[in-house]
Amino acid sequence: MDWNALILFGVLASSLVASAVIFLLAESRHATRTAFNLAAAVLKLVLVVWIIWGVYRNIDYELRFTIIDGVDFILRADALGMMFVGLSSLLWLFTTIYAVGYLENAPNRSRFFGFFSLCVASTVGIALAGNLFTFLLFYELLTLSTYPLVVHRGTRESLRAGQIYLYYTLGGGALLLFGVVALHVLVGDTEFVPGGSLSGLDPSLYPLLVGIFLMMVIGLGVKAALFPLHAWLPMAMVAPAPVSALLHAVAVVKAGAFGIARLVYDVYGIEFAFSLGLLGPLAVAASITILYGSLRALAQDDLKKRLAFSTISQVSYIILGISLFGPVGTVGGLVHLLHQGLMKITLFFCAGNYAETLGVHKISELDGAGHRMPATSVAFTLGAFGMIGIPPMAGFISKWYLGIGALEAGMTWVLGVLIVSSLLNAAYFLPILYRIWFRRRDRVWCEEKVVGRFETPMWLLLPTLATAAAALIAGLLAGMPFSPLYWAELIVSREYLR
Amino acid sequence: VIGLWSVPLLFALPLALGILSLLATPAWRPRTIFVGLPLLATASIGVLAGLVRDGPSVYALGDWLAPLGINLVLDGLAVGMILMTTLVASLCAVYARVYLRDYPAATSFFWPLLWFLWAGMNGIWLAEDIFNLYVGLEVMGLAAVGMVALRATPQALAAAMRYLLAALLGSLAYLLGVALLYVTYGTLSMAGLHEAATANPTTHVALAMIILGLLLKTALFPLHAWLPPAHGGALTPVSALLSALVIKGSFYILLRMWLVLGPEVTPVFTAQLLGVLGAGAVFYGGWMAWRQHQLKQLVAYSTVAQIGYLFLFFPLVTGTGPEAARLAWDGTLMIVISHALAKGALFLSAGNLILAVGSTQISHLVGISRFRPMSLFSFGLAGISLMGLPPSGGFTGKWLLLHSAILSGQWWWLIVLFLGGLLSAAYIFKVFRMSFREGPQIDRSVTPPLTLDVTALILASLAILIGLTAHLPLFWLRLGSVFGAG
């Protein structure tokens, strides 16, 4: 094993080891656990930055061994994978800090942080997987490691949500498994290569390939919350705020969207997928989800529920971008993978801050929150502006590229979807902002807690401000090297200009 | 040289220890493991080393050649089963030594029975002729019945009696089949039958008797009724031994017979029928497991379901291409081994959970995840393998079977594998759902001794690990079989 493979393994192992150690630590060892957790998160981030630099210079990072004849376990760092790894390791650090503050004095922290680390390890595995088999392995591990987080509170409601979550994800996983095995029978080990590996197959197999694609998109669409496979996501809102943040921004929904990206770019190949006529229906499904999610979000009074429906809508921007045939659309989709993560995690952190500090869960109770918690409210505003797509926030960049990509691909109707959905985004975010900033408080807060010198504990406030700043900077400095946009363009140039 | 000494040791040693422990005082009986476990482990590694170095071979006991002497077969399959037995039974023995301290009456008979059981199983794995297979089957079966009766409650005795009847009836049917074959072909050896057997009514009747007998002993649906009370009601280490290893004994004989008789003799129709029964077992067992209220009954019905997967071997290997058949072989053996590890772990950790809450009811596990995470963790790891989710041996086995089913164009088995996986998820998560529910705030549960948790965890981890390192074990298992490279 060479050094590069070892570093790659280190990225995965840092959270796996953290998980094992946290499970073994006694419940009462809070300080040790926090220190270890943060150290692992920082170490992982350092390794990831190192590899990103290496991938940029075209260095190969690969780790593989044979599991059974014809099936290898492969971890490999490529530009697309490192984008997802970068996002998840950055946000893991922030979410860990946030969770430490959020769960102060809560029971079962050992279990929580153990599965939390395992969940991030699965996400990193999904991102680094070098073939469909390895991808599937971590994809299912993600299901298993998020279940205890969803049911963490142990109430009847959260157990019910966990059960629904399992129905959807295990069912989807079974469909995905079927697709993977079927492809394996057709072409052998399906490694991810830019441009895909299926275009050389006999044309008589094309109908079968379409069927397999459909099955795998359904399997992945469950996690990506594609309409009508989305019902688990709003229910999973009963989980603690850091879990929601992780589920919505990094782990589960992103794993689905990322899987669809892998499927289209690196298994089928975008040109081959286009020639099979797979991209048009995918774009339609994504568009329907975008509009449906936004419409449903309008009707929610529960802040986290509204954010959940907003996620359903926003994640489908990524899938829409993937289904636009042409480099600009691809850039728009991929860059949104990062942008949506930064913005959505900010919004969930803010929702958690309101709930923890003021006891506010409903939008109708948020009147005047901006005066009581200005910093959190500024972060929320930045996130919401990004979601609507107001320049110079990161969300604007995504929508701009998606729009131009749609025109380039000759799908003008997509432009209509983008405009309508931006109006809907505004329609469900601006009233919240109005209440926060311009309404006066006429009664006391539901359950106000006054802690320390600031509006809310630093453990909660700092990650919120950091991710909000990141979402702003990603938009402002989109033209700089190593910005999300820059990296997305690098991926696209490697995909299209082979 | 090690290999030569190892072979007779594998069944002579447990037999000797069984007799010795009967003669010893009860206090000395558990101590036989200090001699037995290291020696059996060495012998098992010895035969593996022999296999890897010299390839598969036939060992003539005492240098007497058949038909006068007894031939023992040392191919990949036999060695694989020996290693599996040594591993699982040793961990169960370590567990039992601690666990049985609370059952002074049971402990004095557990140890002789364990050694006889072990001798019977190793006898089956090694036997080259169908009569010695019968002897092994009887020794193993009677010891197993004795172990079920150890608890000595009325329910346990009733379960043991039922088990005894099933076991005797099963081996009787098998023996009749063997007698028919002997009368027809004048040979008992597998190699001889392979040469001589042809498709004719007598062979088919003999085969039918043998299959029926072995199905009853393997507890394949709908002949499974004896299994849940016997496995679910026994003492925990006994349940683990029976579910993990003993049912594999009769399945192993069927597998060998099927391949020895070859495609000319074994009808495709029978193969499909066995597959259908297997599918019935997967659905019925899974459904019943989900409906149970007692933890160990749930695990026992899970065994009924998992046995079903093994029988998909027959339709996938009969009348299909060589590649599909090889995948079916690999997949089935992967499931045999990972089920042994996972089911052993599942029973042991279920026993720990029962010790912790002091009740066999699943509903009493409310909130246990907070207080006994380690027992639950082992239960979960083993559950992953049984559900066939990655990364685990169960998943790798399922992957191979799926591959084989698609390759041979038998899509209907795919449905069995998918729905079976979802059903097992339903009953495994039933336990988890209960244990994640917020329950009492104060820890009133008992802490099981660390040995009990550690043995369960080792087995469960191995069930996961073997999925990631299946390449080498599967290569060894193929040595000397019709699927081997040579």
Could you characterize the architecture of this molecule?
The complex is a heterodimer of chains A (498) and B (486). Chain A starts with a helix and ends with a helix. In chain A, 63% of the residues are buried. The model of chain A has no long low-confidence stretch (mean pLDDT 87). Chain A has helices spanning 3-24, 30-56, 79-102, 109-128, 132-150, 156-187, 206-224, 232-235, 241-249, 252-268, 270-275, 279-298, 303-323, 327-358, 369-372, 374-388, 394-408, 412-438, 458-476, 484-496, and strands at 61-68, 71-77. By secondary structure, chain A is mostly helical. Chain B is mainly alpha-helical. Chain B is 77% helix and 2% strand. Chain B has a two-stranded antiparallel sheet with strand order 1-2.
Return the structural class of chain A: mainly alpha
Outline the biggest β-sheet of chain B: 2 strands, antiparallel
Report the count of strand segments of chain A.
2
Largest interface: A-B, 39 and 38 residues
Strand order in space, largest sheet of chain B:
1-2
List the topology elements.
The complex is a heterodimer of chains A (498) and B (486).
Chain A: H1 3-24, H2 30-56, E1 61-68, E2 71-77, H3 79-102, H4 109-128, H5 132-150, H6 156-187, H7 206-224, H8 232-235, H9 241-249, H10 252-268, H11 270-275, H12 279-298, H13 303-323, H14 327-358, H15 369-372, H16 374-388, H17 394-408, H18 412-438, H19 458-476, H20 484-496
Antiparallel strand pairs in A: 1-2
Chain B: H1 2-23, H2 32-54, E1 57-60, E2 71-74, H3 76-99, H4 104-126, H5 130-148, H6 154-185, H7 190-196, H8 201-218, H9 227-233, H10 236-265, H11 268-291, H12 295-310, H13 313-317, H14 322-357, H15 368-371, H16 373-387, H17 393-407, H18 412-436, H19 450-468, H20 471-478
Antiparallel strand pairs in B: 1-2
